[in-house]
Amino acid sequence: MPTVKKINNIALFLALLFHVSGAIGMILTPYKDWFISYTPFTLLVMFVLLLLTQEQKNSWFWLFVVLCFITGLAVEIIGVNKGWIFGEYVYGDVLGPKLLNVPLLIGVNWFTAVYCAANLVYVLNEWLFKKLGNDMRPSIAVMLFAFVTDAAMVTTFFDWIMEPTAVQLGFWKWLPAGEIPLYNFICWFVISALLQTAFRLFKFPKPNQFAVHLLIIELLFFLVLQTFL
Question: What is the pTM of this model?
Fold first, then answer.
């Protein structure tokens, strides 16, 4: 049976392979549309890799996955059909089958963004507290507030980096003139803060090292596309 380290190494290799080849294919080859069309497959593969690299997947972990998926899908459905959340926007056909005008993969994207950001902040917090020592640790309430705030900011930052490229690739578009509203990022922060609270309080093993790597890979991926497309 593969060890945890081996599984993480394989997952990291696949994440790099998919994102590097995708960036090269979109920027340097005449097959940009073909690479874009495989976005749903890439999102699903990364989702599966995150699940595989999570140690001891107990009921709390699966509850968190479902919570992220349903919450993300629900707020997007309200946002697209009512315009009450995020602003006015519509999804294209790139991301696959839809439920009430929202691709089902958007629920997966919400889990990936929240989970990866949470793991990055968790790792940084643990490193910092280890350096400071137990005497310098803040109270549990302060630690929770700091974690949720930081993780929600990282999640929102990820959306901020992703948005221009996602629009350019046809994932979705903003109405009426294509301008991304500030309100979108405020809502991302609030919703992700609620989900980050669940991540911190739910009792499943943390962190997932691959999730940290995947967040960095995807941030670089969108930055490269934003620069060169």
Answer: 0.96
